[in-house]
Amino acid sequence: IIELGAKTVRFIHEMTNRDTNEIAAYAEMTGVFISIEGRRAQPFPHDLSSNAEGLVIDFELQAGLRDKQVG
């Protein structure tokens, strides 16, 4: 998770080549928490957002560290 809002979450997914350790595929996605009944965005339930907060990373920092390891 690279960004967590009250109603949205942005996350990345990277796949790495096992042999070369190079990034083979990259995707950045945005998710919206939507009420099934109201069909509108709504805030994440507290337990979900508090658990997700522990998964937020500084993606730019992580990318820089990864580049130093690969390069």
What does this structure look like?
This protein has two helices and three strands, in the order βββαα. It has helices at residues 46-53, 59-70, and strands at residues 3-4, 8-16, 23-32. Strands 1-2-3 form a three-stranded antiparallel β-sheet, with helices on one face. A hairpin with a 6-residue loop joins strand 2 and strand 3 (23-32). The chain starts with a strand and ends with a helix.
Compact overview of the structure:
This protein has 71 residues and is α+β, with helices and mostly antiparallel strands. It has 2 helices and 3 strands. The chain has a 3-stranded antiparallel beta sheet, with helices on one face.
Q: Tell me, rounded to a whole number, the average pLDDT.
A: 86
Q: What is the number of beta strands?
A: 3
Number of helices: 2
Bin the strand percentage.
Answer: 25-35%
Going across the major beta sheet, what is the strand order?
A: 1-2-3
Poorly predicted sequence stretches spanning 5 or more consecutive residues:
none
Largest sheet: 3 strands, antiparallel
Core attributes:
3 strands, 71 residues
Q: Strands, helices and their partners?
A:
Elements lengths: L2 E2 L3 E9 L6 E10 L13 H8 L5 H12 L1
Antiparallel strand pairs: 1-2, 2-3
